[in-house]
Specification:
alpha+beta; binds zinc ion; 5-stranded antiparallel β-sheet; globular; 4-stranded mixed β-sheet; 509 residues; Beta-lactamase; 2 domains
């Protein structure tokens, strides 16, 4: 594997998308220096307000009616700020200023607590990796401490420590159940789960396979698993072969041929490009856009897009992944405010009900991807989840995401009920550490969050469409298995699909 940081930072698209995410941080550090309390519009209790004005405090409650702490510190800081911002946009800042509103959110406070603790503990653990050389949170806190109480606080540099973000949504409505916007709202107000755009890396690859399955291929399709020239993809090292960082294994071995099922679950980069070329880049991009991703500049035209050269936000990735447990149907949004009532209890805003949404893939493709991403936890890049990290015994599907320069580590996955996307990386474009793999840096926290969500949401098995055709295929030929075939897998096809008998092992040929 090679570190391609130099080539990546030269790409203008990437630099722009990173820079967009850095600008608000610079701004935030200035605001923070002035004191974040100055933006607290909810601080309207009668003892603080001018006489005759702002007598009633607005309240924010979670989805169970429990009050969310009105604080920019702690586990709810980013949520508090997003809700405050959206509520003022909905109601109008002057109206809102009169106070007395009850803002009902979609947040589950228990899941928020688990999710925040899991991500913050995880990112702190990554900082302790022997190969980690970046600024640590503790180092930044020491710098901050030196400026405390002094006029130089306004010149406090923006933090450069490792960051994290996470979003957990309800698959039925898209409602945000929990989210983490960063490690410390007081250091940077910039919400990485909403506004951050980070290089997708191999988190993108399910959309390559989904496009293939929509265009004549299926999980049994045989792909060549042999080295590919780096020039074909222009990602990672351009001399020599395309790296296999997506396999999450520094000792990756080529297997000559693999099925599409194996290639996705095991995170094979070259094989992904091969099926992607068959599916057609335009089809892949169109599908991903329908699912909710946004592409920038010329990236739609290059093979590197198939391995996640594009940048996305966590909420976009969550929306896009949710098409698979939603049988192909897309989500319009990921709301966090469900209703706002005024001081008299009248509803002044209600999040519009979810309309019947457009389909990004059909139900057969959706099930096929579900089935492949379940394999990630059995034989693929996420198998440590059950072997080491304590993932519960419930139906779950997911995918690691690692970039060629190890700058961004992701895990995205779902049950039938919820979808969770977790990310670790720097706000600046830099390597987390050499060969940082998402199965080690992000997956342990993702498992904790999903275990907590599973306890209260009762996930159901992913079921094939009732009219799908069940077949047993030979994984050497990708054709119907016969008695002599050695390795086989069960696949579900669209009605009307037909396969030949295995030409390698069938005695009749
Ligand atoms: Zn066979």
């Amino acid at each position: 594997m090679t570190n391609s940081e130099e080539t990546e930072t030269k790409n203008p698209i990437l630099v722009i998308s990173r820079f967009n995410s850095i600008l608000p941080i610079l701004f935030v550090s200035i605001v923070t220096g002035l004191g974040v309390g100055t933006i607290d519009l909810f601080a309207q209790s009668s003892d603080q307000a001018p006489v005759g004005k702002r007598e009633v405090v607005s309240r924010i409650v979670d989805r169970n009616g429990a009050e969310i702490e009105r604080s920019l510190t702690g586990r709810f800081g980013y949520i508090y700020e997003q809700v405050r911002r959206e509520a003022t946009e909905i109601i109008g800042i002057e109206e809102f200023d009169s106070g007395g509103f009850l803002i009902e959110t979609t947040i589950d406070s228990d899941l928020q607590t688990v999710a925040t603790d899991a991500m913050l503990d995880q990112v702190a653990a990554v900082e302790k990796h022997p190969a980690f050389t970046g600024q640590t949170l503790v180092e930044y806190q020491e710098i901050k401490e030196k400026h405390r109480g002094s006029s130089s606080i306004a010149r406090l540099p923006a933090p450069k420590y490792l960051q994290t973000a996470m979003i957990l949504i309800d698959n039925e409505t898209g409602a945000v159940l929990a989210k983490v916007g960063g490690r410390d709202f007081q250091d940077t107000m910039f919400d990485r789960s909403e506004m951050g755009r980070f290089t997708e890396g191999t988190i993108f690859t399910p959309f390559v396979y989904a496009a293939a399955f929509e265009n004549g291929f299926f999980p049994g399709t045989i792909l060549s698993d042999t080295p590919m020239s780096g020039k074909k993809v222009m990602l990672g090292s351009l001399s020599g072969n395309l790296g296999e960082w997506g396999a999450e294994d520094v000792n990756h071995r080529y297997e000559k041929t693999v099925t599409a099922r194996e290639a996705l679950a095991k995170g094979k980069n070259a094989a992904t490009i091969r099926i992607g070329e068959k599916a057609g880049l335009q089809n892949i991009v169109a599908l991903a856009e329908t699912a909710g991703l946004t592409f920038f500049g010329d990236l739609k035209k290059f093979n590197a897009t198939m391995l996640g050269r594009n940048s996305s936000s966590l909420s976009e990735i969550a929306k896009a992944y949710s098409i698979f447990p939603r049988q192909g149907a897309t989500l319009k949004s990921t709301p966090i405010i469900s209703r706002i009532r005024d001081a008299k209890g009248n509803t002044v805003y209600k999040n519009p009900a979810v309309e019947s949404a457009e389909k990004a893939v059909d139900q057969y493709t959706a099930f096929q991807i579900n089935s492949l991403l379940v394999d990630s936890f059995k034989t693929g890049t996420a198998k440590k989840a059950r072997e080491i990290y304590g993932l519960g015994d419930y139906p779950v599907a997911g995918k690691t995401g690692t970039t060629s320069g190890f700058t961004d580590n992701w895990f995205a996955g779902y049950t039938s009920r919820v979808t969770c996307v977790a990310w670790i990386g720097f706000d600046q474009q830099r390597e987390i550490y050499s060969n940082a793999l998402s199965s080690e840096t992000v997956l342990p926290a993702w498992v904790k969050i999903m275990n907590a969500a599973a306890k209260i949401t009762n996930p159901q098995p992913f079921q094939p469409p009732s009219d799908a055709v069940k077949v047993e295929i030979c994984t050497d030929s990708g054709e119907l298995a016969c008695e002599k075939c050695q390795e086989t897998s069960v696949e579900f096809l669209r009605p009307g699909s037909s396969l030949k008998a295995c030409h390698i092992h069938d005695p009749g040929l």
